[in-house]
Amino acid sequence: MKSLSLSTVVHSTSYWSKLAGIRWPFFLAILVAWGTARWLRLEYGQDDSNLWLVMNLFLTLAAWTMAGLFLFSLLTALAAWLLFRHQIKKKSVHIQAKFGDGQKAEAGWVSLAVMIQGPVLRPLLGTIQARLVFVGKKISDRIVLDANVPQPRKLRRQAIRGAGQTLLHDRGIYDVEKILISFGDMLGLVALPVSVPYTNQLFTLPRPLPEQHLRAQPQASEEQKHRIDVSRRVEGEYINYKEFETGDNIQRIVWKIYAKSGQLVVRVPEIKDPYASHVYCYVSYFDGLGEENGAFELELLNTYKDQVRSVYEALARNGYEVRLPHDQEVPKLSGLSEKHSELFQITAASWQSQNPPSKFVHPGKAAFVCLPSLTPADEVELLVKNLQPHIPLVVVKLSEAIPSPFQFKLKDLFFKPEKNPNDRLRQPWMIASLRRALRENESAIANMLQHRANSWLTTDINIES
Questions:
Q1: How confident is the model at residue 124 (pLDDT cuts 50, 70, 90)?
Q2: What pLDDT was estimated at residue 439?
Q3: In terms of DSSP H, where are the helices of 244-334?
Q4: What is the DSSP letter of 142?
Q5: pTM for the complete prediction?
Q6: Is the pLDDT reported for residue 94 higher than 50?
């Protein structure tokens, strides 16, 4: 029987709470109304009190008025809900959704628009709302379908639509499996849901980090084998100087060197080489510590993907073609340009436990190696033994990816801090067994890497090698 971890419970609770048709303000309103009525009755409920008679009459009138409005709004929402379900069965309405640019977006707040075509009835004093439900227990924020799409030369509308933004925090592929249409009352206490099957796909890219500086040289065996479209500049012989030979231009003689050493040398101008080598950057997604695909593991993966994107873009700025071998099978999207292919491969990757870095990394090709701190220290040590000393090795420290709930800044006294999706994970993360195992593993990795040059255990990759 599969065990239920804290990470999985947090992930599942967040999902099912958004699908509830009766929302928590409904129960809160009932509790407050009952508590208030009980307190007033105990405080002023004497038979001979004129104040209580007037107060009781007023409270009864207000209660029946609110209950009547709520009941009327709920009945119209119920009628609109039943009619919509009937129209779905008859296939007389059609739903369209668009988010991002239709294919990709940066992780974070993404534009979302939903339109329902057909004779849709709105509840009186109520609203129609829509959510996208994704594979993997993910769900979008609500948007209100409050705009009418007029029909040419007719009074009746042809569709209703709504637009807004939804928070897609996880970096990865979002497969839409259905759209949840909710018919709500005027107070937003009840939402009658209808699930409509819908298929669409979007991938969210890792967030770009501040520009970093990384250097990695291709292995010697790779040079002068791959032609590039744009020639790159390369240095001349002997640091741009060479000995003077017959036929050389005397205007290129460096007289300062001749005055010091008596040797005639000439400057060698830069030349454009139509060949350049590519750099193999090995990025591992090996997870040897986590056991579940819960909320903690997803947040650690988000942080790791942001760092991997930063590494890829920093290496690409050196003028070499960067290649990212993959340690797992990832899907391919049709119509995706080569420019975004590598970024998509980073986005689509997930934690895996079948292909350890010691088997995945090719020591003869690797020019840069990046690992998560979820990789066991024994596995990192085995990789280091096979890796040449001059090859940079970076282990991304993930134990601090989810901030501490006790973290405090002085400006928080004057400005309300911006909400972050991982705020709900801060308290559970402090007592999570994965955090304890991760910190112990990072300590072992740090002790081992201090004996090797070009090795870092860091939360912010900003090095030059």
A1: confident
A2: 92
A3: 255-261, 295-316
A4: P
A5: 0.71
A6: yes
pLDDT digits (tens, 9 = 90+) for 326-366: 888 877 665 555 555 788 888 888 898 888 998 898 888 88
State both tokens at 241.
């100087």
Q: Rounded to an integer, what distance in angstroms lies between the CA atom of residue 254 and that of residue 241? A: 9
Helix axes 295-316, 341-348, angle to 10 degrees: 160
- For the segment 134-162, the average pLDDT, to the nearest whole number, is 85
Architecture of domain 44-205: Sandwich (2.60)
Phi-psi group of 396: left, alpha or beta (phi > 0 → left; psi -120 to 50 → alpha; rest → beta): beta
Strands (E), 284-409: 321-323, 366-372, 393-396
Pairwise CA distance, residues 439 & 426, whole Å: 16
CA distances from 143 to 111, 130, 250 (A): 11, 6, 75
Whether the predicted pLDDT of 234 surpasses 50: no
Residue written as token pair 């990757």: 349
- The neighbouring-strand residues paired with 139 are 133
Give the containing element (helix H, strand E) for 97. strand 94-99
Q: Which residues contact 397 (CB under 8 A, 6 or more apart)?
A: 373, 442, 457, 458, 459
β-strand partners of 151 = none
Query: Comparing 67-71, 76-80, 431-435, which segment has the lowest mean pLDDT?
Result: 67-71
Cβ-contact 139, 15 below 8 angstroms: yes
Q: Where do the DSSP E strands lie in 169-209?
A: 172-184, 191-205
Pairing state between β 271-275 and 278-283:
unpaired
Residue where the block lists tokens 């890497």: 449
pLDDT for residue 66: 80
Give 243-273 pLDDT, tens digit per residue. 777 777 777 788 877 787 777 877 766 545 4
All residues at 6 or more sequence positions from 75 whose CB lies less than 8 Å from its CB, including other chains: none
> Could you tell me the CA-to-CA distances from 428 to 5, 7, 44, 292 in Å, in that order?
11, 8, 46, 15
User: By the 8 A CB rule, do 295 and 11 touch?
Assistant: yes
Q: Do 393 and 367 contact (CB within 8 A), yes or no?
A: no
Domain boundaries, the chain: 44-205, 229-275, 279-458
DSSP of 231-279, one letter per residue? EEEE--HHHHEEE--TT--GGGB-HHHHHHH---EEE---EEEEE--EE
**Taking a C-beta distance cutoff of 8 angstroms, is the pair 65, 186 a contact?**
no
Most distant CA pair in the chain: distance in Å?
A: 125
Tokens of 79: 């009628």
pLDDT for position 397 = 92
Query: Helix (H, G, I), strand (E, B), or coil: what is residue 448?
Result: helix
SS3 396: strand
pLDDT at 33: 78
**CA distances, 99 to each of 8, 31, 343 (Å):** 27, 39, 19
